[in-house]
User: What shape does this take?
Amino acid sequence: MESCGTVVSSTLAIFLVLHLGLIPVMAQQTELQIGMAGQVVILNCRGIPPNTGVTWKYSKLVVRLFTTTHLKGKAAMTDRSEIIPSTKQLKVLDLRLSDAGIYTCEYGSHAVSISLHVFKLTISSDGHFLPNEVPRLTLMQNSSGPLPNLSISLFNSNNDAVRPKLLQSKAPQEYILELKKLEATDSGAWMCRVHSDSPSINQDIPFDVKVLGFQNPDFERKYATVDSTVILSWRLNFQKIDWKEGFTGQLNWKQQENANAHELLDFNVTARGKQHETKKSSRFRFEIPESKPESTIEVKLPKVHFNHSGQYQCQLAYNGRLVQSKIELVVMKVSANAVGPLPRGAEMTLICQVSSPLPSNAHLSWERVNGTPTDIKKSKQHEVKVEVQVRAAGLWNCHLMEGDDRKISLNYPVEEAPVWIRYVIIGASIGGSVLAFGLACLCIINGISWQRRRQRAKRMARARQYLLENKMCQCQHRLNK
Assistant: This one.
C-alpha cells in the first residue's frame, strides 16, 4: 500500500509540475508578421487591458517601455520606433532587413511573441527606365528562423503575368530576376507575389515602373500636299506616369536617311514638370504653336514645300540614355509639261510625284473626274512618279493610296483653249509661214543681185586690165621706130 501511495503521490506531483510549467508557455503566443524594408510595420499585441503598461523587447533587449511615461530601450531600432498609446502597438519606421527577429510584448504576467519576417525588394535604376531597357529585381529576406524557399510571381501594370528570368540565386536569402524589354505602355504599378508553404507566407509586394517615352509609335509616316499646312506632334508621357526626374530633348530634321541632321529646336523638362523649348534652326520657316496640348512637342509648317520632306526625329535624353520617335513627312505635288490651256488636237503630260519612295502597299493614281476606267493610271510598286497623257479638257485628280485608304489628293484642271485662240494660232502659223516664205524670197533676190554685182565688177576689172596692157604695147612700138 505504501508503494501504491508513493506512486500516486509521485504522479500527482509530476502532473502539478507539468501543469505549472505549462502556464507560462500557454501565456506566450507566437505570431508571424511580414514587413517590407524601407516602410512602416506595426506589431500587434492583442488582449491588453486598458490602462495597462507594456514593454516591447527585441531579442531580450528593450525597445520601448510604456507605463505612465514613454521610456526608451537600447535595441537597434529604438530611435525608429514608438508605441501607439491607444493600442499599445509597436510602430517601427524605415524598416531594415536586420530588424527581422522575435519581438516580445509583455504586460502583467503575460507575454506575446511576434516573429517579424522582413522582405526587401529593389529595382534597378530606381524604377526609372527608357523604352527597350531591361529592369532587374532583387528580392531579399530575413527572419529569426530558417529562411524558406520562395515561389515568386510577377504581374505587370495590366495585371498580366510576366515570366522573369532568374539570373542569380543565393536562395533562400536573395533572388535576382530579369524582366523583358520595357515599352512606354508598361508604366504603372507592378506586383511581386511571394509564396512559401512553411512558414505560410502569401505576400504581395507592389513596386512602380516608370518608362519615359512617347505616346506616338517609334515610326510614323505622314503625308502632305505642296502649299498645305502641316502640324507634326510628339506626345510625351512624363505627366501621365508622374515622372519626377528632369530630362532634355531635341527635334532634328534630315531630308534623307544618310544626310546630315539639322537641329530645329531643343527642350528641357524640369523635375517639377515645367517644359521649356528653344527654336534653333532657320533653314526653313516653321512655327512652335503657342496653344498646344500639355506634354507635347509640336512644330507647324504653315506652307509646305517639296523640299520640306524627310525625317523629323524627336529625341529624349535621360542620364546619358536616349530614346527617339520619327515622323517621316512625304510631300506630293502635281504639274504638267506645258502651262496653259490645251489646244484642240494637242497633247499634255500630267505628272504626279512624291518626295520619297512609298511603302509596298501604297501607290499613286491619276483619275479623271467623271471619267472611265481607261482614264485611270497607277504607279508601280515603289515608284515615286506617275504620268498620264491628256488629249482633252477635264479635271484630273492624283490620289495617294495605302491599300484601300486614300491618304491625300491633289487635282489638276486641264482647260481647253478657246476657239479664237485656235484661229489666232492658225493665223499665226499661216502668217509665220508667209513671213518665212517672204524672207526666203528676199534672201534669194538679194543673193542673186549680189552675185550679179560681183560678176559685173569682175568684168570691169578684166576690161581695165586689158586696156592697160594694150596701151603699154602701143608705147613700146613707137619707141622702136
